């Protein structure tokens, strides 16, 4: 019988509070998938050879009792219609994630204020982080959701983590090595974008999102400043924002609130 788990990385009080708010959705989704919940609540390398974010590279080694594992960040809301992500990793593939939507209108609008990102090709993305170019490279990924077969990938990611390789000033922590090694070894499966729909792109990269931002900026400055400081969010959840987010949740599977966008739980 296939042993499956949903892995959550909960290190620190901030993330414990986030988990407490979303525990029910993860448990419900795990039941739908026939998977255990695997919680990691301590650093996987207490000597910190690399930063905590990079320790995601050690998660496959820490979950080798399972055949397949789905990792999810805690700032994700799961739609009720989400199918089992475990069904989307073919038997001959060992690591899956969504590719960054490089070249799309949403991507270009979101990152238009940073020319370096717009000019970055797939090749440049990897070589600028000190990885050799390879014809099998497909592109950069977002590390908020990924699925893998621990027994197949654990050693290579662990070896990289403890290596002396340095990504330089453009360090992308776990994302670049995950993408690089899975792609050059032909293990990689690009997941449908619905499994990691980022609010960042929907707000900054669409006309509707831009209009919501414009309305939010009409609120009193002192109020917004207070709210940002108190909550750590990057914007105030107006009714228009909530309605738009609920629409996005209804149309997708996993909605990712990376970038400190206020989480709207369904």
Automatic annotation (TrEMBL):
| Originating species | Chryseobacterium cheonjiense
Q: What is this protein called?
A: Nucleotide-diphospho-sugar transferase domain-containing protein
């Amino acid at each position: 019988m296939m042993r499956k788990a949903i892995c959550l990385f909960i290190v620190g009080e901030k993330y414990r509070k986030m988990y407490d708010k979303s525990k029910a959705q993860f448990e419900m989704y795990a039941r739908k998938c026939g998977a255990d919940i695997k919680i990691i609540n301590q650093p996987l390398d207490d000597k910190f050879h690399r930063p905590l974010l990079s320790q995601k590279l050690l998660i496959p080694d820490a979950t080798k009792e399972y055949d397949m594992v789905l990792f999810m960040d805690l700032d994700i809301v799961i739609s009720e219609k989400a199918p089992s992500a475990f069904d989307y990793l073919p038997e001959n593939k060992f690591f899956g994630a969504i590719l960054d939507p490089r070249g799309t209108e949403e991507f270009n609008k979101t990152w238009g204020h940073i020319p370096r990102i717009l000019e970055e090709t797939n090749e440049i993305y990897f070589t600028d982080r000190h990885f050799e170019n390879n014809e099998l490279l497909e592109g950069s990924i977002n590390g908020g959701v990924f699925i893998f077969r621990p027994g197949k990938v654990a050693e290579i990611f662990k070896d990289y983590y403890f290596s002396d390789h340095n990504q330089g000033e453009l360090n992308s922590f776990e994302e670049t090595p995950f993408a690089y090694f899975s792609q050059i070894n032909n293990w990689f499966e690009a997941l449908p974008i619905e499994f990691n729909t980022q609010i960042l792109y929907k707000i900054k990269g669409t006309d509707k999102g831009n209009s919501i931002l414009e309305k939010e900026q009409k609120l009193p400055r002192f109020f917004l400043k207070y709210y940002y400081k108190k909550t750590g969010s990057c914007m105030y959840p107006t009714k228009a924002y909530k309605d738009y987010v609920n629409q996005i949740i209804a149309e997708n599977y996993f909605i990712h609130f990376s970038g400190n966008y206020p989480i709207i739980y369904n």
